[in-house]
Amino acid sequence: MNKIHARLADLSHDEVRRYSRHVIMPEVGMEGQRRLKASSVLLIGTGGLGSPLALYLAAAGIGRIGLVDYDVVDFTNLQRQVIHGVSTVGLSKLDSAATRMLDLNPDIVVVKYNEPLTSENALRIFSQDWDIVIDGTDNFPTRYLVNDACVKLGIPNVYGSIFRFEGQLSVFYGEKGPCYRCMFPEPPPPGLVPSCAEGGVLGILPGTIGTMQATEAIKLLLGIGDPMIGRMMLYDALELSFHTIKIRKDPTCPVCSVPKEDIVLIDYEQFCGMPAHDHSEYSTVEDADDISIKSVSVHDMRAALENGDDVVVIDVRDPHEWDISAIDGALRIPKPDIQLAKNGIQAGRKLWEETVLLEIPKDKTLYVHCRSGKRSADSIAYLSEIGYDLDKMYNVEGGILAWADEIDPEMPKY
């Protein structure tokens, strides 16, 4: 962080007054606040984690804050993405966040990158003289990308993740400790860890983890305290418990154990077996487990139901989702039940009468849907592995979200 010293500038009288609760602390003081003003922090994502991060970094007086995002504000974001509001629904998240940050502190500079972070642009963006990168993303391909780019450029990576009631926090810094790949050398199998859109998240949780990420960033910039390098904090909101585990640097790590010039940014979507970015309104899947899956629109499904065609509609969402909204007449079988039944049959336990598969006919056309299209495609793949005719199964594009938008506007969306 020595390069920060070269940028130090005096504080104005208004800035001294604004940051008075900082400068009276001996651990910060005038010198520390000048360091914060001279600092540059790049924030990846302006969603759940990015909202408290952006607000508190701006309020703390970080002089230059970069934002990387390409999404727009959706009404469902407001339950947790507190930097946005009803007035900005439908607008760019970057513009929404920047407006709020500058309203909170007009003395800072906000740099906006309205583009998805990819292997092609990561080094260009990360090389713009940032002291710290903070990962506020929600998918594995981008997490691996952020890690590898930070290690290659020697930048600390303040990491956070959230899911349902649990959160994680660490600082990955290849020059002084382990990196993300030392902790997670391989991504989880595709579909094993559902996204927040599929599994949900307690709205307050990103506020808890995001403010902790901001705290770690401030500590690093000021050179105070004991940063979470080589440690990971595990938080359980239901128990209100914090546990810290040690992370050891892997001497054989393919990233932080090799010369920086040998680090190559790969195709992280292929590496993780899942997409990192999706501009489409619905997350549909045309191919799962290397098989070609046919699709059908919600209009085609409605026509089939109204015409009395010999089709069976299967809803593979979780039971608590059925309480929110459901299509009349659909056979309700959660994806995990189909997967368990498939695994049992493949293991030689052919207990058809004792499995949910008894409810799924093999002689009829199946229209399979979930919330948006991913779990239904996976379910079709599972069924095809145990003898169901792939030509008789169709993935409903857009799932129940598309049904609510295009067929039944009175149906609740989530």
Write up what this structure looks like.
- The protein folds into two domains: 39-272, NAD(P)-binding Rossmann-like Domain (Rossmann fold); 287-406, 3-Layer(aba) Sandwich (Oxidized Rhodanese, domain 1).
- An eight-stranded mixed beta sheet has the order 3-2-1-4-5-6-7-8, sandwiched between helices. A five-stranded parallel beta sheet has the order 11-15-14-12-13. Strands 9-10 form a two-stranded antiparallel ribbon.
- The protein has helices at residues 2-5, 13-18, 20-23, 29-38, 50-60, 93-104, 122-126, 140-153, 180-183, 196-199, 205-222, 268-272, 298-306, 319-322, 335-346, 374-385, 399-406; strands at residues 40-44, 64-69, 109-114, 132-135, 157-163, 166-172, 231-236, 241-246, 287-288, 291-292, 294-296, 311-315, 331-332, 365-369, 393-396.
- It is built from 17 helices and 15 strands.
- Residues 279-287 have low confidence and may be disordered.
- By secondary structure, the protein is of the alpha/beta class.
